[in-house]
Amino acid sequence: MADKADVIVLGMGVGGEAVAGALADEGLDVIGIEGRLVGGECPYWGCIPSKMVIRSANLIAEADRVPGMAGQSEVSTDFAPVATRIRDEATANWDDTAAVDRFTGKGGRFVRGWGRLTGPGRVQVDGTTYEATKGVVVGTGTAPFVPPIDGLDGTPYWTNREALEATEAPQSLLVLGGGPIGVELAQAYSRFGTEVSVVERADRLLSVEEPESSQLIEAVFEREGLQLHHGCTAVGVSHDGQAFAVGLDNGTELTAEKLLVAVGRRILLDKLGLDSVGLDPGARAIDVDGHMRAGDGVWAVGDVTGHGAFTHLATYQAAIAVRDILGQDGPPADYRAQPSVTFTDPEIGSVGLSESRARDGGLQVATGVTDVPVTTRGWIHKAGNDGFIKLVADTDRGVLVGATSAGPWGGEVLGALAVAIHGEVPVDRLRHMIYAYPTFHRGIEAALADLG
Ligand SMILES: Cc1cc2nc3c(=O)[nH]c(=O)nc-3n(C[C@H](O)[C@H](O)[C@H](O)COP(=O)(O)OP(=O)(O)OC[C@H]3O[C@@H](n4cnc5c(N)ncnc54)[C@H](O)[C@@H]3O)c2cc1C
């Protein structure tokens, strides 16, 4: 006989853990199933350890900026302290006992293993069937996408996981992929003294961001000595026991001690038994409505829904799914003001539509830009003040529909812009508010003036 519960959560990553914990808090009988570690990618191999490496790397860069600003400085680029902190403080050596205890402490029941739907409300793990009376929430996330490059398979290449489990910085690192994960880790390792090359298939890094963001980050990377290869792709990889050799389709041959594959994430639907509940296992992602319903008695949250691979998105969707399961009212998902931050230095924050996406969407668009170095705060800040604020306005409605905030604390400045877009604050009201002096966010006022 099947073990029964109110709700089964399949995949206890960021989104699943949030759903399972909140429903258990409400007194529901919840079974949480996780094949790897409760908490998912973010705390163990994603956001948290990567931002710990970046924080330390940025301190090294800041110390390098001391001469000419405040005296002299010389810092160690030893990687060991950050590797130790990741193990001790962030990932607890990849042990999720505390997270499991948190869930079971709320009354949740935890099952370690890889689950598969076998019919409406039914999930099987290692031959045992669990049955949910209210439904199943799928939050199975993504895995690193590893492209089929000749020779790559079988070599000791890194994904984000190995890159964040490393105990020392390699002498050289070749990064395949110039998206957010690739550029964040590329710059961080470079600041620990690693010689870094980045290979990106598109003609610019961070190709989903505004072109200005790509230009900015490329200029910074070139200044910091990273080697950039755009518009080309790896066609062959070999490893001789010491180093990688990577052949590009433009004939270039690159070598490096380590190879990081960061060309995107893959949503793995084929092993979830989705067809048993009437969903398409061949789809790109699990299609959900505004309340995270994927079908009768099936909800999905997080990366698996294909709305973007962000922790803040997974937790946002989790709260919506919880409300829906509990029969509570609340607004459906609204992705107009979806933010993202690439934690390079300068940080690249963006929200809503880029200029080209707004134009492609048929909007009447005006843009306004201000460069951080010409703002008062940017001028004061000097070393490390690269950045800009770009606004994208829908002139018919007189509201912002997109914005980029790149610069020191660009992700924090983004907050004001996200509120403006989410709240559809009229541009005219934004022009007539008070911006604290001399802050980085005051650059918004200058960009508004540039909107015309
Ligand atoms: C290097 C890196 C840096 C990142 N930095 C940021 C950042 O700064 N900010 C940000 O917002 N996001 C960041 N992200 C993205 C963020 O980690 C993800 O968006 C987030 O973890 C998604 O949560 P999720 O619950 O959808 O999936 P996941 O966290 O991937 O969790 C899914 C869980 O489901 C489990 N699972 C899968 N299939 C099954 C199955 N059949 N049975 C049982 N369990 C299963 C998996 O083992 C996993 O634990 C980063 C990601 C990476 C890789």
Walk me through what this model shows.
- The chain is globular, with a radius of gyration of 23 Å.
- The protein has 14 helices and 22 strands.
- It has helices at 14-25, 41-45, 47-64, 80-90, 97-105, 160-165, 180-191, 211-223, 311-325, 355-360, 376-381, 410-422, 427-431, 443-450, and strands spanning 3-10, 30-34, 109-112, 115-119, 122-125, 128-138, 143-144, 172-176, 195-200, 227-230, 234-239, 244-248, 253-256, 258-261, 265-266, 293-295, 298-300, 339-342, 347-352, 365-371, 388-394, 399-407.
- Helix 1 packs parallel to helix 9.
- By secondary structure, it is of the alpha/beta class.
- Bound molecules: flavin-adenine dinucleotide.
- Residues 10-11, 13-16, 33-37, 40-42, 46-47, 50-51, 114-115, 139-142, 160, 181, 272, 302-304, 309-312, 314, 343 line the site of flavin-adenine dinucleotide (FAD).
Question: Tags for this entry?
Answer:
five-stranded antiparallel sheet; 22 strands; 452 residues; alpha/beta
Q: Given the C-alpha coordinates, what overall shape results?
A: globular
Radius of gyration from CA coordinates: 23 Å
SS class: alpha/beta
Ligand inventory: flavin-adenine dinucleotide
Helical amount: 25-40%
Number of helices: 14
Distance between the termini: 69 Å
Biggest sheet layout: 8 strands, mixed
* Mean model confidence by pLDDT: 97
Number of strands: 22
